[in-house]
Amino acid sequence: MSYPPPPSSSPLPAPLNGFTFDNNDESLVFHKAEHTIDKGLCSVKWSPGSFITNTRELLLNRENLIEIEIRLKAKQGKKLLLGLSSNPVAQWSDRDKIVQRVMVGGFEFKKRDICIVPLNIIPDNIFHTYNINIESKMRSGWTAFDDMVRKFFISLPEIPDNEIVIDYIRFVTNKEKFSRTPCGQSYIKKNKERRSVLYTKTPSRLRYTLTLSNTTPYLSFGTGCLEPNDPVEFKVSIKSNNSEKVIFQKTTHDPDIWTFEKLDLSEYAGKTVDVTFSNSSRQGNIAFWSNPVIYTPPQEKFNVIILLQDALRADHLPSYGYPARATSPFCEKFAQTGVVFENAFSQATATRPSCPSFMTSLFPTTAGVGLHHEALNANYLTLAEIMRSQGYATAAINQNGNAGYYNGLHQGFSRLYELEDIDAGTADVYGRQFKSWLDDKQGRNFFLYFHIMDPHGPYNPPAPFDQWYREAHLSGETLPKDPALDPVWMEKPTLEGRRLLYDGEIRNNDHWFERFYEILLSRDLLKDTLIILISDHGENLGERDTWGHKPPGYIQGIHVPLIMRYPQKLPPKKVISAPVQLIDIMPTILDIAGIDKDEMVLQGDSLLPLINESDLDFWDSRICFSEEVVNRSKKFDNRPFGSLIIDDWHFLNSKEFLPHKLRKWCSGAEPFLSKAFQYTTDREELQFINSFYFDFVGKFIVSRIMKNFHKRNQQICKGLTGKKEGTIKTEPEVMEKLRALGYLQ
C-alpha cells in the first residue's frame, strides 16, 4: 500500500488524499480480514468482526472534505459501512457509543465518536466507482469533536466467505475536485438549488466567437464561487469590429448564493463577435458560470409543465369516478378543459425506476434503473436534454431524492430545486423558487417538472385538510404502526383512518394546484402551456392486506392519472379509454412541440393520433407493459415478472405470488406465477380469471412474451451504455430521507 499521492499510472487526472495498494506499505490494518494484494488490487474476505482501518492519521479538514471515492467490485452483498472519526484512537466496536449531546433549536442532536455512512453496492463482480458526497454532513457538525477527520473504517457485507476487490480509496476536497482541470462542466448545489455550471480556476478567460441573430439577442447566466473569504470578480466583454467593451462586471464573495443576470445584446444584433467570460481572485478561488446562454425571444410561444404527485392512484380522483370524497374539485374542473386518459399505467411500482422511464420513453429494463443503488447512465437522452437543446429553459422542482440528481435525472435541467426535507409540504413546491424562476425566464419558452411528494406516505395532511380524519368516528381493527405510512402523532392506525388521511393529502395538493393555476393565469401563460398531470405509480391502501407500492403490481399500484391540457392543440372534455403508458408522454410532447424524433430511441408512442382518433386498430391491439424490477437479484435478469396490459386484460406475473422461503427456487416456475384480470369491469381486481385454457396455455404465452420483452430491453440497455463500468453517486443525507420514507431498510 502507498499513502498519497497515488502513482502516475492512476486513471484519475490529479493526485488525491487516499490509499492505493502495493505490498510495501502498512498504512492500513485489516482486522480479522484475510487479504491479498496483486497488481494494485486488494482482495479482502469477510469474517465475523472484520473491518479495515488506517494506521496513519488522515488529517483532513472536514470543512473542505466533499466526497469519498472508492473503486471496487463485489460478488455478494448490497451494503458496506463506512466510518469517519476525528478521534485518532477511535474503536470500531464503539461505533454506536454517544459521546456528546447538543441542543440546537430545541432539538437534541446525538454525536457519536464514529459517523456511519451506509454505502449501497452492486454485487455484479464488475468494478464500479462509488462517489459518496458527505459535504453537507461534514458542515453540519456530523463528526464529533474537532474540525479534522483522522480515522476511517470499512466494514464488509456480513456474508460468509464474501470477498470484495478494492482498487483505491480517495478523500476528495472541494478544491481538489475542481482543480483537476482548468475548466469543465458540473452540477453545483447552493441553498437547495443545483445548477448546471461551467467551472474555472481563477484567473481564467473563456472566449467564444458567435454570429448573433438579427432579432434582439439576450445573454443570460448566473455566477457563484466555491470558497468564502476570497471574492471572485466576474467580467463579460464583447469584441466587435476590433473594439472591445466590458458589458458586465460584478464581484461575488458568498459561496452559498447564486446570482442571475440578463444582458441585452441588441447593439450587436446580426454581427459576428467574440464573447469573453473572465474571472479573477486573490487566492485562486473556483468560479462558476451557471447556464450561460444567448437566445432570442421565440417566434411561437410554447411551454411544457409536467406536474407529478407521488403515489397518487387514479381511482381516488373524482375525474376517475371516485365516489367516496371530493378529493380534487379543482382537478375535476381542470380535466374538463383537456384530455383524460382513463387507463394510464406506470412502468413500475416505485419512483426510482418509474421516473427515468418516462423521462427517456424507455422501459425500466431498457433505462437500466431498478434497484435503489442504480441511476440513469449519462449515455441516455432525456426529455429535458432534448428541450434544452431546442432552446427551452429547463428546471425541476423536486421533493423526492429518487427522482433527482442521485438518480441521474439532473441531465438536461439547467436548474434543480431540491426540496427533499421530510417535513416540507406541497405549498413549498409552488413557493418562492417557482415564482422567482418564472421571473428569470420571461421571454423564453420553458420546460418545467414538478415532483410533489404527497400523497406518498406517511399520510399527514395539514389542517384543514385533515378534517375528514378528525371528524370521523373510526372503528375497526387497529393495525400495526408503520412509520412509512403513519404520522408520528397517530396512536392507533386503522384501514379507514389511513385512507382518510391519504385522501386529505390529495385534497391539500388540489388546493395548491389551484393556486399554481392562478399564478399561470396571472402571467398570461395558460394559453401557451401544455400542462400534464401524472403520478409515478399508485398505492395499495389495504387491499389484500397490502400497503404502499411494492410489488406485485396490481392495478392499485400501476393505474395512474394522466390528464393533458393545451387549448392550442388538444380538445376539451375528451375521455380516452384505450390503455396507454407513461412512456407515451415524451413522444407526445415532442410531436406537439414539432421536434423531430425519428432518430431517437423511444419505446413509447405519441398519443396525438389516439387523441385525433386515427389508426384505432393499432391502439386496440397495442400491449402496455409495467415491470417488476425492484425485486430483481441483478441488473440483467430477464425473468418474466411484471404486467402485460392489452385491451380489457391485465396479465400479472410476480415473484411475490410465492411464499418468501420459496422465491429463490422459483426458476423455471415463472409461468405458474401468473394471474389474469379483466380490469375494466373488475376495477379493484378482486377476482382473477380461473380457466383451464389460461392455466395451461395462456400463462405460458404471457410468460414467453414477458421474457422476450425483458431480453430485448436488456440488449438495448447494453448497447446504449456500452457495458461500461458504472459510477454510483451516493449522498448520505438523501439515503436517510429515503430510509425514513420506507424505501431502504
In short:
The chain is α+β, with helices and mostly antiparallel strands. The protein contains 16 helices and 42 strands. The strands form nine sheets. Strands 16, 17, 19, 22, 24, 25, 26, 28, 29, 30, 31, 35 and 36 form a 13-stranded mixed beta sheet that branches. Strands 1, 3, 4, 7, 12, 15 and 42 form a seven-stranded mixed beta sheet that branches.
Task: Record keyword descriptors for this entry.
single chain; 745 residues; alpha+beta; 13-stranded mixed sheet; seven-stranded mixed sheet; 16 helices; 42 strands; 19% helix; 31% strand; globular; disordered N terminus
Arithmetic mean pLDDT: 87
The low-confidence runs, each spanning 5 or more residues with pLDDT under 50, are: 1-16
Shape: globular
Helix count, per DSSP? Answer: 16
Global structural class: alpha+beta
Percent strand equals: 25-35%
- Please give the radius of gyration in angstroms: 27 Å
Our measurement of the CA-to-CA distance between the termini, rounded to an integer number of angstroms, reads: 34 Å
Please bin the fraction of helical residues: 10-25%
Q: How many extended strands?
A: 42
Largest sheet: 13 strands, mixed
